[in-house]
Design goal:
The protein is of the alpha/beta class. The chain has one domain: Rossmann fold (3-Layer(aba) Sandwich). About 45% of the residues lie in helices and about 10% in strands. The protein contains nine helices and five strands; from the N terminus they run ααααβαβαβαβααβ. The protein has helices spanning about 5-20, 45-60, 65-75, 80, 105-115, 140-155, 175-180, 210-225, 235-245, and strands at about 90-100, 130, 160-165, 195-200, 250-254. Strands 2-3-4-1-5 form a five-stranded parallel beta sheet, with helices on both faces. Helix 6 (about 140-155) links the parallel strand 2 and strand 3. It is globular. The chain starts with a helix and ends with a strand. One of its GO terms (molecular function) is ATPase activator activity. This is Torsin-1A-interacting protein 1.
């Protein structure tokens, strides 16, 4: 029996966090140089170590970020670096970024590069970049169509593997249903991809504990408030279903 995304990801994160707390993973403390290039898990059974080393390199480079951030990024890609011809779901990360986080864009680009290195076809064709603020004056229908076209063109035609959606919280409320499909679990149209969504917050509404469950609760509260102006397409139950897909792995970047 397969576990749903929320359950399996939480089990993986808990296992990794336990190992980390016992000294098994030394995020930010491993001074070995990171591997370069790509790792194909169908040919190399050590891609989990390859991914770990890449993330350790980021933890060392950005040592002011929480270790839980790096643990979550590693756990979210666990299925994709294991020997699995057909991953159960795409990698989906929601990034809670602070307005004054001057290096956040740089960190996001590095995270995208890390995921790009372990996803087929193991060549760098660049990332899909979507700016949520650019759709402020667009209708939900027009926004949905444009985003779907961008994602399909990138994933299907250009063989791009990572989509970064800046200011996801600025998209017209009713338009976000596009991501209900792309961030779905077993029914997602593209599973060997990573989708990174950013939302912007402030120190004032930052949870006291930056670990993922607290962030997920803060994000959930924010989106329940924002999406209530789309009651037909997004009733409360559907908002919860949306959040189970887009906000299952939430990290904080300062």
């Amino acid at each position: 029996m397969r576990l749903d995304c929320a359950a399996s990801c939480e089990i993986i994160k808990a296992s990794i966090y336990k190992t980390f707390s016992q000294g098994g993973y030394n995020f930010g403390l491993n001074t070995a140089s990171t591997n370069t290039g790509f790792c194909n898990p169908h040919k190399n059974k050590s891609c989990d170590k390859f991914l770990l080393q890449k993330i350790e390199h980021l933890a060392l480079k950005y040592n002011d970020q929480s270790s839980y951030t790096w643990l979550t990024l590693f756990a979210a890609a666990h299925d994709h670096v294991s020997y699995q011809p057909d991953p159960q779901r795409p990698i989906v990360i929601m990034v809670y970024r602070l307005k004054n986080g001057s290096r956040v864009t740089e960190i996001l680009e590095d995270i995208a590069e890390v995921y790009d290195s372990v996803l087929p076809p193991w060549k760098n064709y660049g990332n899909i970049t979507i700016d949520g603020k650019s759709f402020t004056n667009s209708s939900p229908e027009e926004t949905q169509k444009q985003i779907q076209d961008m994602l399909e063109n990138g994933f299907e035609k250009e063989a791009q593997k990572v989509a970064v959606v800046y200011d996801f919280d600025k998209l017209p409320s009713c338009s976000v249903l596009t991501f209900h499909n792309y961030c779905n679990n077993e029914d997602a149209p593209h599973k060997n991809v990573a989708i990174i969504l950013t939302v912007t917050g402030t120190d004032e509404n930052l949870p006291s504990n930056p670990k993922s469950p607290d962030l997920e609760e803060a994000v959930s509260k924010s989106f329940h408030e924002k999406w209530k102006d789309c009651p037909e397409e997004l009733p409360p139950g559907k908002i919860d279903a949306m959040l189970s897909r887009v906000a299952n792995n939430v990290i904080l970047l300062r």
